[in-house]
Design brief:
11% of the residues lie in helices and 46% in strands. The protein is mainly β. The strands form 5 sheets. The chain has a 16-stranded antiparallel beta sheet with strand order 12-13-14-15-16-17-18-19-20-21-22-23-24-25-26-27, with no helix packed on it. Strand 15 and strand 16 (351-363) form a beta hairpin.
Amino acid sequence: MKFHLTGIALAPWHNWSTLLILCLVMLCTGLMPRQARAEDWDHYRGWEITAFELTGLPKELAKDFNNQLALHGRRNLFGTKRPNFQTKILAEDLARIRLYLARIGYPMAKTNPVVEPDLEKRQLALRIEIDVGQAVRVGHLEINGWPQRVALPDTSHQGIIHRGQIFQDESLEKTADFLRTILLNSGFESAKVQPTLEGIEAGLLEIHFAVEAGLYCVVDSVIVEGCSEDLVGVALRVMDLKMGAEYSVAKMSQSAMDLRGPQLFGRVELTTENLQPGRLLARATLENARMRSWYAAVGTWSDNPWMVRMGWSHNNFFKRGYGLRTRGEVGSHLLGLGVDVFWKGWLTPRSTTSYGFGIEKENELSYGSFEKRNEFIQAFRPNLRDMWKVGISLSLVEVEIFTPDPDEPPDAQGPMLEIWSDMKWDRTDNPIIPTRGYYYKISFTASPPEGVSESPYLQLHGDAVRYQPIFREVILAGRFRLGASQSLGDSQDLLANRRFYAGGYNTMRGYDRRHLGPTDSANDPRGGKFVGLAGLELRFPLFWLIQGAAFYDAGQVWREYSDVTSGTISGAAGLAVDLMTPIGPLRLNYAVNVLNRQEGRSRDMWTLGIGYPW
């Protein structure tokens, strides 16, 4: 027996040819399983399915396949909802099982449905017995025509189908794509890879990959056209295509993505043309984007129960990629205004540089503050989901303590020089409604003791958040936060608006906003130098646009390092209800303090917020 399969890397519909050929062989040899006749099952039509089971399917193959069958039904909060029995549904599920097994290397699988009826109740338990049959495995693998200037990939690499592996259509396709991608990223702009299958003996396949690498190419020149003349230099800087560099499809794709990043170009098309054998012209066809934009957002940021942010920006206000941005925010305890000048691609193609001035006013229970801030920020994006910011700021800070403690020195006020860095790694699947993945955030701030700062200090804090699906639409979310700070020089304490606070929607839902931790003589929050917070939350669907959650929050804020002990950590357990909206979930929380409730604080607490707490 011998058969061939070509063109996998070029035409996706050819992936099915393996399955069709295997089915043809089974038909010719009389091994195709017969389906049960529809009339044998018609008298069960409309009966309730009380149980459904697959037997004979190896655990390593099953995964979540059982849940994808119509007869299995759908899981919800109150159990599993199954459809009433229909002959058509049974036939479709049997075909789905055989197709699944054929695609993962078991083309001779047989299915046998067995029913256990309850005639009085018109109910039935359905079991599908599966005989997977003999697996088709890879007997030999060979790569022909590989160019000498590129190292031949190790056939044991996880991206390559290997000897002894059960043959799968998907694995063959991935191997062909993997080999072709290596060549496309090594200068071979027209590389092709075509697999051929041959039957050696029963249950074994011989696989040959025929490689046509084509000419080795380098990028000889770059042309930018279509955009305004003042943005040509920005486009060349952001694309970062080096003349004489080896052609790479990954680099071309990244350059096209980098051109979209600054939001200066509405149309981005990056193509290559052959100037002469082995020499390519990279042509960037661009159109100016709409430079002016407004934005508005409402949510629960920081520890403010609500906050509204608005702004206007012009991405090319000063031409040549120099933009102007104005911003404003109003919260329950905060008012801020600012203006920035920013430009793209100064240090690296994915960097943004900005200089701005802003004012910020806070009105808290224990203090009020007014701050004027000049800030220079350099932001880097290693990729679309990660961000690293480095900044230096010079501020004039005024803080008024409403109820100063008699044993505390007054806050030193005046100029404040701060050097800071923020890093965030985001691996979540959705920034607004995450269901899986994680993100980390680390922030470091230093106000040097020698110089202009009246209240120098060091501060470091970090967040780690994880989202893990438990089963369909049920998500386990966990958060951990640590922060530490230390005053420097002659300063005996941190300014009130530079301390850590906790309590409220985003931190500890058993306490009112900022009411977890040290208090002043009026029993109002005074903040501290150290913070530790943790939370665990189980999120699940209820009905319509309503979701529910059960959570446990724990943590504490400590005034000094000597106060940090595990025995002082407070804990609260509670329930939440979410209304899912286009701007994110609107949430109502109810929490009960169950561990180390602070004196003078409520036993339970209601909180309302926009968006998830983390």
